Amino acid sequence: VVMRKPGQEMIPVNVSEAWRRGYEFHLTEGRLVFRTPYGQPDSFSAQVNGVPVEVVHAILFSRHSWVIITVNLLAHCSMHEGSYENGYLQWRGLQFSSPNKRHKIKVTVGMNGELEQAHPSGVENTVDSGAEQGVYEVEKQNSVFQIGIPYNAEGGRRKSLALDGLYEFYVFNLYVEQILLEGDQVDARLRVFRTLVTPLLPRPLFCENGTLLAERMFLAYLGDVPEDVVLVSVGLNGQEFPLQAQTLTGFTVTEVAHANNTRGYTLKVPFDHPVVQQQQDRAMQYVLMIQFTLHVLPEERPVYHQTSVTVLLDASPPAINASCSDSGMRFTLEHRPSEHPWQITIGSELLTSELAARHGYVLSNHSQRLQLDVPLFTAGYEYKNVSLKGFAGTFEVHLQDPKSAEVHSWVQTCPFSLSQYIFCSRTGVMTVVADLSPMVQSGLDPARTSLLSKDCRPTESDGTRVLYSFPLNSCGNT
């Protein structure tokens, strides 16, 4: 064996001595394997097309009778440590070089010692292409191939760190195999194992304010918490509450698990909790300063996330009760003493006696109660799920504070079932249900009827009744 290195005299040694120096040669039928550790004295470093490589060159001599067989073993292993760009961890290596133009090269990428489906890199040793292999990106140009791994790809390991904020990094045990083929025959195989690590990446948490005014309840949701980070305590307006004691404090913290291996925490604090700051002038102001304290496991290093919620209430709106009848709906509002008169609106119009008379509503208003009867098919209704069996009618009433423009809405939906009716929707569609029983007795088939336009046929028929639904100004309608 001769180990060849630039600038170094080539001194042959026998195979036993080569083994003693750390070089392994295994010869089986049709297969020669050469193994050597990195950093051997006979290896050397070089730059090939911008890729740092470690090169080892062994020449084997074998005598068979009067014939000497020489085998050149040249391996150049990429020493590229990886780089991070645009969410991808990238590693660069060198493609096999072969003078045989019939050779094909396959590059296979995997993780943790397991390979994915092989990617054929080309024929005749000329490659200039890019392809995706599962979640990996394999790009080749000339003799260099580059592998891109999404930072959060499956197969990697992540770890959180607390360093003046929450950070994370990912570790990948990259496994790359190159195969040199002539037909179906494997001429050479090169396997590379590399451990790649991303730089420290910020891992921001987010907090959503979902305060429930109707329930007089602060609600804050802390989300995107990694699986190795846990919430240990909550600070409310400067008072610290460990989670172990939170059941005794009058507020709740609920953990929410997600399928992407993250978790969230929902904090609920009543407006009337003693820790909540309250200021009253013309309106009531509730202030809650929140500090979430989390620990990164297993080190239990603390991470803090702060937010604040302020609620300003002029006055709570009175409740509106709604009920259904065969002929429409009824809305009832009980009056109560208030310095903030709430106004009732239908759509964008203020409810007055004139508006009620114009639309056909029945309005009664006295010191204790306001009552509004809305007959079916009057203005403001929205109709859904229309069929011969019936339909759903929806009507919406708004309460508006004229000072703050705060609006609260009440939506009532009632089922109705009528033998015949006609109405127009807000989208300009006319619906007609007609009972044709007298004509059926004369042999008329309701399903074969039409409007003035013969193309306008029933959309539904039950043997005696028909349902037509058509745009305005169509089907002979004017």
UniProtKB/TrEMBL annotation:
It comes from the Eukaryota. Residues 423-478 form the ZP domain. PROSITE patterns: ZP_2. It comes from Tetraodon nigroviridis (Spotted green pufferfish). This is ZP domain-containing protein. It holds the Pfam family ZP-N.
